Amino acid sequence: MDKEQKKKLKTQFKQNEHKKLIASLPLSIELLKELLSFLNRENDPNCDHTLRETTDFLISRNLNPDKIIPWLNEHGGFCDCEVIFNVYDDVGDIVGWHLEE
Hints:
By secondary structure, the protein is mainly alpha-helical. The chain is built from 5 helices and no strands. The N and C termini lie far apart (41 Å). The model has no long low-confidence stretch (mean pLDDT 89).
């Protein structure tokens, strides 16, 4: 297998992984961006090592935390600050949200 074939396979694998991730989202990309922005807002409270802020956000948008929190956990989001950093690591580029925003 030459370099070009390896590169194509790697690109295809990455695209397939992105598609799987997007298909697995329990909320829209727009709402996920809103959640990340909400948790990363200026003057946000210090993380209390719970998903209190995340849960409040989901409830305020009439979303079911019981459906969304397990997905966040699968992506390393076990508390509010981990949602910002760990979930971001998995989905930031895919959903078009960046920590600087």
